From TrEMBL, chain A:
Catalysed reaction equations from the record: RX + glutathione = an S-substituted glutathione + a halide anion + H(+)
Superkingdom classification of source: Eukaryota
Protein name as it appears in the record: glutathione transferase
The EC number(s) this enzyme carries: 2.5.1.18
Keywords assigned: Transferase
Transferase keyword on record: yes
Organism: Nyssa sinensis
UniProtKB/TrEMBL annotation, chain B:
Residue ranges constituting the GST C-terminal domain according to the UniProt record: 95-227
CDD domains documented for this protein: GST_C_Tau, GST_N_Tau
Residue span(s) of domain GST N-terminal: 4-89
Annotated family: Belongs to the GST superfamily. Tau family.
Protein name per Swiss-Prot or TrEMBL: Glutathione S-transferase
GO biological process: one example: glutathione metabolic process
Reactions listed under catalytic activity: RX + glutathione = an S-substituted glutathione + a halide anion + H(+)
Task performed by this protein: Is involved in the conjugation of reduced glutathione to a wide number of exogenous and endogenous hydrophobic electrophiles.
Enzyme kind, highest EC tier: transferase
Cellular compartments per GO CC: cytosol
Places the protein is found: Cytoplasm, Cytosol
MF (Gene Ontology): glutathione transferase activity
Record's keyword annotation contains DNA-binding: no
């Protein structure tokens, strides 16, 4: 039976892009439906009544919601090119870092870039502390997932791509400098040049 | 497996720790429970060297130490337990879509419902408290629907036996009762959420749960000490 896969998302959303990377990595054909977040479609509201958010993956009519939940679903449904390690301990480590990124890093990074002047220094310091933790975790590895990108690399797309964009838009290297985070910067280079990611980057508008 | 191969760093009042203990009970895994002590003065916990070494990122309980490997974050630990000890009954369902549903509601409980429950205790005005209580009740309404859909007429979210979603939500039943008693209010109301109400009773008396869930009175005593510490720590 042919699979019917649809993805409700937004081109500029890192959460939406994560799911696309995973689907592309697995060679899954899907239809992308761009949502207008200021005017959410009836379908989106029907498939995600609790949060009313993208991304929503629709697989043969069944909706799956929340990007981390979707990534695990994709990995368990389409077995080629695994995103998560096979070993339960390595899997637990990957899940830990994915959660760390979403619950701690991204809110801190957003805060660092959106804080007002008097609060910005503190926000940048807090974000730096968290990036240091990631820097230490990467040490010695090409990707968080080892030789190939895995769950954590996919989830870290905000750092992999969007952080550079934001810094460029602001015209200064506020946070992520080669001097302070050489390993993380090297990871970003590897990340954006990795073919599945490269074909899936939004234009730097 | 020898008991000293599996250690759990935790504390008896913590719902997150309870989740792990319930999972270990379901799988009949022997473990050594290393209790972190209450802190002196205004620290809630006196964090041991082992905790700080095993969870340097968050410095929080629970931490499962299997052999020499530490695993942190309660739901990550529960999934780990499910994947390592495969002879006991499954904690997560086997079908990927059912797993996604369970994970979705677990994320909802962690990210939305638990913070609203906690904010009742931390509320600084009657209005804030009332708003938090309304959020908790609204959440329970959503969870009632989830229960009906997931359980498909059986006793637990997972079906015939206690599973992932039962553990994720159920560990908070003790603290829910504490909040109800301390505020003289009914949040889990059998009239509004009959499915959840009966589920809660079955859950608390289940063999995987009953030795792990503290008595409400004991939790209330602990809560009083805890809130006193928290108030002392944040001068208004």
């Amino acid at each position: 039976m042919a699979d019917e896969v649809k993805l409700f998302g937004v081109w500029a959303s890192p959460y939406s892009r994560r799911v696309e990377v995973a689907l592309k990595l697995k060679g899954v054909k899907y239809e992308f439906i761009e949502e207008d977040l200021s005017n959410k479609s009836d379908l989106l509201l029907k498939y995600n009544p609790v949060h009313k958010k993208i991304p929503v993956l629709l697989h043969n009519g069944k909706p799956i919601v929340e990007s981390l939940v979707i990534l695990e679903y994709i990995d368990e449904t389409w077995k080629g090119n695994p995103i998560l390690p096979h070993d339960p301990y390595q899997k637990a480590v990957a899940r830990f870092w994915a959660k760390f990124l979403d619950e701690k890093c991204f809110p801190a990074l957003r805060k660092a870039f959106s804080s007002k002047e008097d609060e910005q220094e503190k926000a940048i310091e807090e974000a730096s502390e968290l990036l240091k933790i990631l820097e230490n975790e990467l040490n010695g590895k090409k990707f968080f997932g080892g030789d190939k990108i895995g769950l954590v690399d996919i989830v870290a797309n905000f750092i992999g791509f969007w952080l550079g964009v934001i810094q460029e838009a602001k015209g200064e290297e506020l946070l992520l400098t080669h001097k302070k985070f050489p390993i993380l910067c090297k990871w970003i280079d590897e990340y954006v040049n990795c073919s599945v990611i490269k074909e899936n980057l939004p234009c730097q508008r | 497996m020898a008991a000293n191969d599996v250690k759990l760093l935790g504390a008896w009042p913590s719902p997150f720790v309870m989740r792990v203990r319930m999972a270990l009970k379901i799988k009949a895994v022997d473990y050594e429970f290393l209790e972190e002590k209450m802190g002196s003065n205004n620290d809630i916990l006196h964090k041991s060297e082992l905790l700080l070494k095993s969870n340097p990122v968050y410095k929080k309980i629970p931490v499962l130490i299997h052999g020499d490997k530490p695993i942190c974050e309660s739901l990550v630990i529960v999934q780990y337990i499910d994947e390592v000890w495969t002879s006991g009954s499954s904690i997560l369902p086997s079908d990927p879509f059912d797993r996604a549903i369970a994970r979705f509601w677990a994320a909802y409980i962690e990210d939305k419902w638990v913070p609203s429950l906690r904010s009742i205790g931390m509320a600084e005005s009657e209005e804030a408290k009332k708003a938090a209580m309304e959020q908790v009740e609204e959440g329970l309404g959503l969870l009632e629907d989830a229960f009906v859909k997931c359980s498909k007429g059986k006793n637990f979210f997972s079906g015939d036996q206690v599973g992932y979603l039962d553990i994720t939500l159920g560990c908070y039943l003790g603290w829910l009762k504490v909040t109800e008693k301390m505020n003289n209010v009914k949040l889990l109301d059998g009239a509004k959420t009959p499915g959840l109400d009966k589920w809660a009773e079955r859950f608390c008396s289940d063999v995987a749960v009953k030795d792990v869930m503290p008595e409400t009175e004991k939790l209330i005593e602990f809560a009083k000490v805890l809130f006193a510490k928290l108030r002392a720590a944040s001068p208004n």
